[in-house]
Amino acid sequence: MKLSRLSAPVLLLFPAFLVLAAVVVVPLALSFYSSFTPFRLTKPESLYVFIGLRNYMTVVSSSDFWVAFGRTVLFLTIALNAEMLLGLGLALLVSKAVRGQRLLRTMMMFPMMFSPVLVGFQFKFLFNDNIGLINNGLQALGLTDQAIPWLINGNLALFSITVAEVWSSTSVFAILILAGLLAMPRDPIEAAHVDGCTPLQTFRYIIWPYLMPFAFIAMTIRSLDVARAYDIVKIMTDGGPAKRTELLWTLVGRTAYGDARMGLANAMAYFAIVLSILFTVYFFRKLAAARQQIGAEW
Amino acid sequence: MAPVSLKKLVKRYGALEVVHGIDLEVKDREFIALVGPSGCGKSTTLRMIAGLEDVSGGTIEIGDNVVNDLPPRARNISMVFQSYALYPHMTVGENMGFSLKIAGRPPEEIKEKVADAAAILDLSHLLERRPSQLSGGQRQRVAMGRAIVRRPDVFLFDEPLSNLDAKLRTQVRTEIKKLHARMQATMIYVTHDQVEAMTLSDRIVIMRDGHIEQIGTPEDVFKRPLTKFVAGFIGSPPMNMDDVTVDGGKLVFATGATLPIPPKFRQRLTTGQKVTFGLRPDDFYPTGHGLNSGDAEAVAELQLPVSITEPLGNETLVFVGFNGRDWVSRMLNPRPLPSGQTIKMSFDLLQAHLFDLTTGKSLVA
Ligand SMILES: Nc1ncnc2c1ncn2[C@@H]1O[C@H](COP(=O)(O)OP(=O)(O)O)[C@@H](O)[C@H]1O
Ligand SMILES: [Mg+2]
Q1: Distance B18 CA to ligand 1 centre (A)
Q2: I want to staple A196 with a disulfide (CB 3.0 to 4.6 A). Which of B73, B151, B205, B225 is the partner?
Q3: Chain A: residues touching B (Cβ < 8 Å)
């Protein structure tokens, strides 16, 4: 009797709401709640102890956390910039191809087709100091006679991870920027030539402003991605050596499953999410501004 | 000082040749219109002059220099594109000043020149806007402003008015004409609209399928078309044309109607010869309602049925049945003519044109 009084739309949407609540809202609420408890996987009853903001205090005062946080920001910045430059270069090259452009476009997407876990394993092998392809190559070329400890030295390890991340995701930038290039009207470029621009000036003043929104779309997508970078790092170094490649999410993972401190890990995770949201909002703002700049009608 | 000279200019896209070796001498400060149907190679020719397309053969000279291998920026030209091609991310002022900025001129000078051009084109109040905030007519003026700010030797226009509505088109046409007088520069203007070409230019170049059909003043190409194509292309409404056979002193139409041979052609025609007869609507009129050429002997008169009329106020276009279809006539001092009525029509044969049936060339050439 009572059900029939609900309006038809509400009734029809009800199952969807139910499913969404079960898979999104409840876990989210639960994890948020648990970040206010000393919840440990090994002590289920600890879930019912409310400790207020104590987990957050611990996180804020933990140097391990802040180092990982800073490293994540650095990693994000380097990876995104490298990806954008490489992606731009790749897109420009492919857009110049007269023949076989479709094939090149498809090939460009290959790295996106691999699971990050596979990419991690692949690069772990490439960078292996004894049997790795890179050291082998360098030695064969006579550039070095030592086994460079790519994944063992802390700085080199972070570099190696960045390379893997950049390799797997440059195509996101390349594809979006290429889409921009292909959609770009020819006329303003020709007008710029007539107005006296050299090819470089044409790029700087006409083409790049037009491509900027596309680059920012890629940035927005990728900032969500990289801020949850986990798999490649987990496989290649697992945060080592001596935590020198620990990023936010590997730290969260370790705290949650290694140390079983779920409540604390959840508190960290919310920090990471905020970071991710900040990056996204930042790039989204830039995107909106750039779109307005070119008077885009989309 | 920049005459433009095209010598045996050829353009090929792969195996497809679209401009077949054209010759054209544009004098310094001349206004030349390239006109012809869509696809005849006007834009391609203009873009070769601009340096936006490679030249496949022949030479282009601007001033005394062969510019074939110079990039556009080294040719001292301005171009107004059909789509206007404004820079969407720059304001109107920045659009107009861009070429000067690239040339490294000081900001004060840029500001001054942009302000000057904006005043000429009535854009002063729009300088801070972006192209997306402008109407079509305003964008068009910004495109012109961008072209005039740098005072080039040669202006190139590629159908600059074709995206405007009819009223605005007439208005901007006048502005372009004034601009030419003010700028003292060579202008090459591409259009498919013969009215634009006629009203604007010192000389008209009529192109067809990558060839030049005729070069001449507006009066030349209107009064003395060298080919049937030119005769049909220039003039509105177009010239009435039909094939005839010469028989003694008469021209015999397919349906058997006859007209006397126009006096100036009498010596040139032999019985049995087939030619195309052409008469402009201005020279074919209800008797008493036309511009008489003065030679009454050269006017033939026939009784013909009115099919429809199009009153235009000061004149009326009268369509009359002749030789199995409607011929257009221009009636001055019009009076109402009911459809179906038979009226006396005058053919002013002094103004008639005859063209060779196979080559399409004018017989008075
Ligand atoms: N990039 C191109 N590739 C091949 N053919 C072209 C190209 N650009 C123009 N054409 C051909 O050249 C001819 C002339 O074109 P165009 O100069 O644009 O004509 P219009 O007189 O209408 O301006 C047309 O038949 C067109 O199809
Ligand atoms: Mg064209």
Answers
A1: 7
A2: B73
A3: 185, 187-188, 190-198, 201, 205-206, 209-210, 293-297
Three-class secondary structure assignment of B156-185: EEECCCCCCCHHHHHHHHHHHHHHHHHHCC
CATH topology of domain A63-293: MetI-like fold (1.10.3720)
A27-81 residue pLDDT tens:
889 888 999 998 888 888 888 888 888 889 998 898 889 999 899 889 888 999 9
Model confidence, pTM: 0.83
Query: d(Cα A66, Cα A60) in Å, to the nearest integer?
Result: 8
Assess B132–A contact: CB distance below 8 Å, yes or no.
yes
CB B106 within 8 A of CB B119: no
Instruction: Give ipTM to 2 decimals.
Output: 0.86
> Is-contact B286 B346, C-beta < 8 A?
yes
Closest CA to A270 of A33, A62, A42: A33
Please say whether the dihedral angle defined by the alpha carbons of residues B339, B345, B348 and B354, taken in this order, is positive or negative: positive
**Which domains occur in chain B, in start order?**
4-233 (3.40.50.300), 242-356 (2.40.50.140)
Residue A255: both structure tokens together: 């705290």
Which B residues in the span 175-214 are in contact with A, Cβ-Cβ below 8 Å?
A: none
In whole angstroms, what separates CA B326 from the centre of its chain? 25
Closest ligand to C-alpha of residue B19 is 1
**Where are chain A's structural domains?**
63-293
What is the C-alpha separation between A13 and B209, in angstroms, rounded? Answer: 64
